[in-house]
Design a protein that fits this description.
Layout: H1 20-37
């Protein structure tokens, strides 16, 4: 369980990207990889 305040208080919050376009891009890449293996149909978008 993460503590809300770190023991080393000089450490700032780390940036966390919740990037919708990155998620979409990764999903497309994964779909293409599965299609190349013959496991999935290619999503037409």
């Amino acid at each position: 369980m993460a503590l809300r305040k770190p023991h080393n208080s000089w450490a700032g919050a780390r940036p966390v990207n919740h990037d919708a376009s990155k998620t979409t891009r990764q999903a497309k890449t994964a779909n293409i990889a599965q299609w190349a293996k013959g496991y999935a149909e290619l999503e037409a978008k």
